[in-house]
């Protein structure tokens, strides 16, 4: 029972800390557009892929 009197206030303080962090992140706009990160991985820029393919082919030609 005495352990519960110590752990319960600590748990409440930690929970209030997480709640404060959540409200801070909402205030800063972290949750304004929850769908874009999911679309961002699908809408990747093709330029990055093209340059990496060109670099790989240049390395293969240089070795041959």
TrEMBL record:
Keyword Membrane: yes
Database matches in Pfam families: FixS (PF03597)
Keywords associated with the record: Membrane, Transmembrane, Transmembrane helix
Sequence intervals crossing the membrane: 6-26
InterPro entries, per database record: Cyt_oxidase_maturation_cbb3
PANTHER family documented for this protein: FIXS PROTEIN (PTHR41532:SF1)
The protein's name in its UniProt record: Cbb3-type cytochrome oxidase assembly protein CcoS
């Amino acid at each position: 029972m005495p352990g519960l009197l110590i752990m319960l206030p600590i748990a409440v303080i930690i929970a209030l800390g997480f709640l404060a962090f959540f409200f801070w992140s909402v205030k800063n706009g972290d949750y304004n557009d929850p769908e874009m990160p999911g679309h961002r991985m699908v809408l990747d820029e093709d330029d990055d892929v093209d340059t990496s393919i060109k670099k790989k082919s240049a390395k293969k030609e240089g070795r041959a």
